[in-house]
Amino acid sequence: MSVTKKIDTTKIKKILVIQLKPFGDVLLTTAYFETLKNKLPQAKLYYLVKEPFQEIVANHPFIDEIIAIKKEKGLKYAVQRIKIIKKIRREKFDLVIDQQNMPSSQQLTLLSGAKLRVGYADARFSFVYNIKAKRGKMQYSASRKYELLAPLGIGEEPYKLYFPIKHEAHEYIENWASKQKSDLKKLICISPGSPVKSKIWNLENYAQLADSIHDKLGYKVVLSWAPQELKYVEIVRSKMKTIPIVAPSTDLCQAAALLTRCKLLICNDGGLNHLSVATGTTTLAIFGSTSPEVWSPASVFPHHFHLHNPNWERNSQNDFGISFEEVFEQVKKILAQ
Question: Residue 52, preceding bond cis, omega within 30 degrees?
Fold first, then answer.
């Protein structure tokens, strides 16, 4: 039966937020955690994610406990799922916020035993929720996360994205930097890859852009990459006339440490763009078919920028209807600010 009367939030002592994956959403969901803790100071906040995404929120200042689901298959997956459900039920949560709104998270929400279960009214199998939120206007995804707090009487407030960087990560990048023959004080990071091929702006354009930044602006270019993305960096490097610096293999924390050294990050739509919000790194993201209205931080954070051609018609070049000259001009404007 749905909860229709006003919710007495003072009785909420334990909250579970579920956002199993992917990287970007696991980070973006934390946007409202500070607000939630301020509005319900008596409550402990638990966050349920899949491995390895617990690394993104480790030592987060507003999370009391992280519950991580291991990657398993077959029978092991079933056993793991049963264990997680038992753990959730033992914790006796008063409120579960299902940010994922998918069958896997809905199962956990339904079986949680929580009196209050929040999710979107238009989600498939929304019957598992007894508090149903409505989707609002299109806006940056981190801001949209607040929609699930609306039925609790909590509205959006100014927020930050937190990503505590371990000392060891900074040390790793410092050690790498000390071994480079070039002075890395004037550094621009270009991340040309993505796990989603359709999000990758034309690699030849990236090469031309990197050359122009090096030759005309006097910045060193470092090409960064995530697991499975080194091949894209190698293609860009092979097409360049100048010699870029290739970043070392990094985990998320080390990638964040690298971003703190950079004057500017240029990338595709993806998780690194959101990570740069947490590190305070100025960013220019190049969008193709995905919506910058939802996925660009530019509408909320003034040091973020994006380029998007809404009239672009998909082609084999994947240039998004944006030339490297247009991106270079935008880079010059950003650096001049």
Answer: yes
- Residue located via tokens 């930044």: 213
Task: Report d(CA 296, CA 140) in Å as an integer.
Answer: 6
The Cα–Cα gap between 153 and 8 comes to 10
Q: Give the CA distances from residue 65 to residues 22, 44, 68, in Å, rounded to whole numbers and listed in that order.
A: 19, 8, 10
- Residues in contact with 258: Cβ distance below 8 Å, sequence separation at least 6, in sequence order: 173, 189, 222, 224, 247, 250
pTM: 0.89
DSSP 8-state assignment for residue 49 = E
Give the right CATH number for 167-336 from 3.40.30.10, 3.40.50.1260, 3.40.50.2000, 3.40.50.300.
Answer: 3.40.50.2000
How does 224-252 read in b/e, with b if 16+ C-beta sit within 10 Å?
bbbeebeebbebbbeebeeebbebbebeb
Q: Average pLDDT for residues 93-99, to the nearest whole number? A: 98
Instruction: Evaluate if residue 1 carries a pLDDT over 50.
Output: no
Please state the domain extents for the chain.
9-152, 167-336
- Integer Cα distance of 308 and 288 in angstroms: 6
**25 and 141 in contact (C-beta within 8 Å)?**
yes
Q: pLDDT tens, 136-159?
A: 999 999 999 999 999 999 999 999
Residue at 169: amino acid letter: A
Amino acid found at 100: Q
Specify the fold of 9-152: Rossmann fold (3.40.50)
Q: What CA–CA distance (Å, rounded) separates 248 from 95?
A: 42
Cis peptide leading into residue 22 (ω within 30°): yes
- Tokens 């293999």 sit at which residue? 249
**Contact present, 283 and 271 (Cβ < 8 Å):** no
pLDDT band for 5, please (50, 70, 90 cuts): low
DSSP for residue 129: -
